[in-house]
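Journal club side-thread
Mid-discussion, someone asked how the predicted structure for our own chain would compare to the paper's figures. Pasting it here so we can look after the session.
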Amino acid sequence: MLIQVVKSKIHRVSVTQADLNYIGSITIDEALMEAANIIEGERVQIVNINNGERLETYVIKGDRNSGTICMNGPASRMVAVGDIIIIIGYGFMDMEAARSYKPALVFPNEETNQLN
């Protein structure tokens, strides 16, 4: 049996942009993506600390070390610039592998979205 487990997490980053007229997704600083083992096109869950909203979208690579966290398309209505969010990626594993798996957890500076 396969179960879904947390694979990656970028914990408490600040939304820097929201672009309603873009086609969709979340743009994430490439350095944060690499640290969290998230790839472009990957499905992620977004949890908004400020208002409790939860949504799913896919990832677009942003400029490295830019601190960019941009909610695009309709999802931009569920966040405000400056909101603090958590970005979570999940993976499927068999039960035994999941018992010992260690996810990539990233805790950047909330104000700059840079790795400490």
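Post-session note: The first helix runs from residue 30 to 35.
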